[in-house]
Amino acid sequence: MATSAVTTTDRSDFKHVLVSGTKVGVITGLAVILALALTRLLPAGLARDLALSLVVLGAGVLASLLPGHWAVSRNTEGVAGAAAIGLWGTVAFMAIDIVLLRPFRAYPWTWDAIGGGSTWWYIPVWWMLGTYLAWMGGLVTAARNAHAAVGLSQIALPLVLGSIVLTAVAKLIAGGVAVSVLVGGAYTVSLTALALFSLVRKA
Q1: Domain boundaries along the sequence of the chain
Q2: How far is 70 from 68, CA to CA, in rounded Å?
Q3: pLDDT digit string (tens) for 11-68?
Q4: Which member of 5, 23, 74, 143 has the lowest number of beta carbons within 10 Å of its beta carbon?
Q5: At what angle do helices 179-202 and 152-173 cross, to 10 degrees?
C-alpha cells in the first residue's frame, strides 16, 4: 500500500530531491566528459558533429525528463519537485566540474574566453538552464501523466523529432553554427513549446 502511494503521487520531499538531483548531476558530468573525449579523439568533421549532437540530445532528454519522472509529476507539487531536482543536479555537476574537470584543464581556452577569462561565468547560467529544463520537463510529464502514467520514451519521442526538424531548419539559416549547438537550442525550443502547449491544453 505504501509503495503504491509513493509511485502514484507527486514526490518533492527533501531527501528524494537531493538523491535524484545528484543522479542528474552525475549523468550530466558523464555526458560532458564523453563530449570532451569525442572532441579530442575524433577529427573535426561530420562524424564528430553527429557524435556530439547525439550526446547533447541524449543529455538534454535525460536532464529535462528524468526529474519529472523521478518526482512522479502530476500536479504543481510534482512540477516543483522536478525543478528542484534539476537545480540540485546543476549543483552536483558543479562539484564534479570543480573537483575533476577544472584541475585537469578539460575545457578549451575559448570556453573561458567567452566570460572574459573568468572560469566562473557559466555557473549561474548552468543553474538557470538546468532548472529551466527540469521545470519544463516536469510540466510536460505532469500533462502526460494527468490521465495515465506514461513511459519516458513516450514523452521523449515528440521532443526528439521536433528537435531534429528544428535543427535542420536552423542549419539552413545559420550554416556556420556547430550542429551540436543547434541541437541544444532546438531541443530547448521544442521542450518549451510542448510545455506551453500542455498548459494551454490543460486550461
Answers
A1: 2-202
A2: 6
A3: 889 999 999 999 999 999 999 999 999 999 999 898 999 999 999 999 999 999 999 9
A4: 5
A5: 130
